[in-house]
């Protein structure tokens, strides 16, 4: 008799939840959030413990290493000063995105040692998670496909009625993997897109390979609030997300502190190579 194998789900075990609002590290230090993500990936693998990580920042431009290779990078950085955004080079793949209090960054973090979580499965976990969070509570289905003229475009851009609301990336360290999502909950998405459009407009000189960097059309992106035509806070979104998990609050142990300190120093080294030794 053939027994159908049960498909794994994004919420199959009890999760520990870590939120930037309660972390004991510098909340306004952009590098701290990336360092903590790395620390939690290592922690998840070492303890075979799934983790859900929420974080938000003040206005921040998050660049990928590819962004630092544009022809006029130094000149383009002036755009972020004009918009009063700090800048950080992230430790995961992809191109520039924007973070601010209206954007929720969330990671599903899994141990991935004996049964290695595939890249595609990771993306499917996040897509299923986000769909279950909002649909059918709200009327429009969230779809996953590349929104070509968005910033940081990719195969798993999440959209509503053709407008991008979120992007997904992954990071893998030893025995853990994080599927990381930014989702624009509220705020001025047009301004976010216009800022990055100006960054690339100044930075690119036309010699770059076609299709490597985005040709941003701000109108192809939106927020959850605008897509659903309702007021929606980041805290409401987090509450909806948590309803799908068996979870408890994570504890910032000495083990995590050690992983965090090591990861933070790596973030500083990465950014100092770009911005100089004064970067903190």
Could you write a compact summary of the structure shown?
This protein is of the alpha/beta class. The protein has helices spanning 30-47, 73-76, 78-82, 119-134, 189-203, 224-228, 234-242, 254-275, and strands at residues 15-19, 51-55, 60-63, 86-89, 97-99, 103-111, 142-144, 158-160, 163-173, 176-184, 247-249.
Tell me what you see in this structure.
This protein has 280 residues and is an alpha/beta fold. Strand 1 (15-19), helix 1 and strand 2 (51-55) form a beta-alpha-beta unit. The N and C termini lie far apart (61 Å). It has one domain (15-275): BirA Bifunctional Protein, domain 2, CATH 3.30.930. It is built from eight helices and eleven strands. The strands form two sheets. It has an eight-stranded mixed sheet with strand order 7-8-9-10-6-2-1-11. The protein has a three-stranded mixed sheet with strand order 4-3-5. The chain has helices spanning 30-47, 73-76, 78-82, 119-134, 189-203, 224-228, 234-242, 254-275, and strands at 15-19, 51-55, 60-63, 86-89, 97-99, 103-111, 142-144, 158-160, 163-173, 176-184, 247-249. Helix 1 (30-47) crosses helix 8. The model has no long low-confidence stretch (mean pLDDT 93).
According to CATH, the fold-level topology is BirA Bifunctional Protein, domain 2
| Total number of distinct structural domains | 1
CATH architecture: 2-Layer Sandwich
Task: Please identify the top-level CATH class.
Answer: Alpha Beta
Radius of gyration: 19 Å
Largest beta-sheet characterization: 8 strands, mixed
For the record, what is the CATH homologous superfamily label? Bira Bifunctional Protein, Domain 2
The low-confidence parts are none
| Percentage of residues in helical conformation | 25-40%
């Amino acid at each position: 008799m053939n027994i159908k194998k049960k498909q794994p789900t994004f919420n199959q075990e009890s999760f520990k939840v870590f939120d930037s609002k309660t972390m004991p590290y510098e909340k306004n230090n952009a590098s701290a959030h990336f360092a903590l993500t790395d620390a939690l990936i290592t922690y998840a693998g070492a303890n075979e413990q799934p983790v859900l990580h929420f974080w938000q920042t003040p206005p921040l431009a998050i660049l990928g290493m590819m962004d630092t290779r544009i022809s006029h990078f130094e000149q383009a950085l002036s755009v972020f000063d004009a918009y009063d955004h700090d800048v950080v080079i992230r430790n995961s793949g992809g191109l520039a995105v924007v973070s601010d209090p209206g954007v929720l960054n969330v990671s599903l973090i899994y141990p991935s040692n004996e049964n290695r979580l595939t890249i595609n499965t990771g993306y499917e976990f996040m897509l299923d998670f986000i769909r279950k969070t909002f649909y059918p509570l709200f009327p429009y289905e969230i779809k996953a496909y590349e929104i070509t003229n968005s910033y940081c475009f990719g195969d798993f851009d999440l959209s509503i009625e053709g407008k991008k609301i979120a992007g997904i990336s992954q990071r893998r360290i030893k025995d853990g993997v994080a599927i990381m999502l930014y989702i624009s909950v509220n705020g001025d998405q047009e301004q976010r897109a216009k800022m990055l459009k100006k960054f690339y407009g100044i930075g690119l000189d036309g010699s770059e390979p076609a299709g490597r960097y985005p040709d941003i059309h701000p109108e192809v992106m939106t927020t959850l609030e605008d897509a659903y035509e309702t007021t929606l806070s980041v805290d409401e979104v987090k509450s909806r997300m948590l309803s799908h998990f068996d979870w408890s609050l994570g504890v910032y142990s000495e083990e995590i502190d050690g992983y965090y300190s090591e990861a933070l120093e790596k973030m500083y080294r990465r950014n100092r190579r770009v911005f100089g030794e004064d970067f903190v």
